[in-house]
Amino acid sequence: MNGLLEERVEQGAVAVLTLHRPEVMNSINTELGFALRDALDRLNEDASVRVIVFTGAGERAFCTGGDLKERNQMTNEQWLKQHRLFQDVFRKIRQSDKPVITAVNGFALGGGCELALSGDFVYASKSAKFGLPEVTRGIIPGVGGTQTIGRFLPRGLALELLLTGKPLSAEAAFEYGMVNKLLEPGELLKETLQAAQTIAQNSPLAVRMAKKAFRLGIDLPLEEGIELALECYNRTIVHPDREEGIRAYNEKRPPVFLDIV
C-alpha cells in the first residue's frame, strides 16, 4: 500500500485524497510522494473532477511532513532528490485549476502545515495544531511554508512561528482567519464535503476563472488585477454555462453545467 486513499463522491465530482499512514502520523515518505504526484496529475486532467479534498487518516494527525525515519541516514543527494519530488507535488497543489480544500484533523506540522496552506482554504477540527518546527531540526520549511504562512497570518506572528517552531492552536488559527471553519472532529469531513458539493454544483469554468482572477490578481496593483479579472470574466460570457445559468434561473430549476473538456 502506498499510503494514499482516493475516493470519489458526489457522482465523481469531488475527489477525496486521504493520507493513510496513521502509524507515523501520516508523514510523507517517498512512496507516498510518488502516489500524490500521480494522483494529482490524473485528477487535474480529469474533467469530471471539480473539487479536490485533502485529509488525513484518524484524528491524531493530518500530516506531520516528511518521514524523518526514512530520511535518517539519507545522503545530501538522496535528500535533495526526494525533496524535488515533494516540491513537484506541492506545486501541483498550489497551481491546480480546481478548488482544493484541506480538512485538517489533528497535527499539521512541517510539510503537513505547508500542505494545509497549499490549498485554497482550510477547515479544521478543534483538536488541530499548526506548526513549522523545521528550525528545530536544522532546516527551514522547503515546500512553500516561508511564503504561505505570512499570507495567512500577521507578519510578526508568522515570523514568531517560523523562528521558534512553536505550534498554533486551531482556535488561534481560526481567530486569525487561517482556518475558515472550526469543527468537532466527527463533523470535519462531513462539513468539508458539503462545501465541496456546493462548489461542484457551480459552473466549473466560472469557478476556475474566479480562482484564477483571485490567485493571480490579488498581489497586483488594483487596476491591473481588475484588468486580469475582466479577461477571466470575458471567458465566461462566451461559454454555454452562461446561457444555461441564466436560462435555469428564469425557468426556476437547478442549472446543469458542463465539465471543462
UniProtKB/TrEMBL annotation:
Gene3D superfamilies: 2-enoyl-CoA Hydratase, Chain A, domain 1, Lyase 2-enoyl-coa Hydratase, Chain A, domain 2. GO terms for biological process: fatty acid beta-oxidation. GO terms for molecular function: enoyl-CoA hydratase activity. It is an enzyme of class 4 (lyase). Keywords: Lyase. Pfam families: ECH_1. Its EC number is 4.2.1.17. Belongs to the enoyl-CoA hydratase/isomerase family. This is Enoyl-CoA hydratase. It comes from Paenibacillus validus.
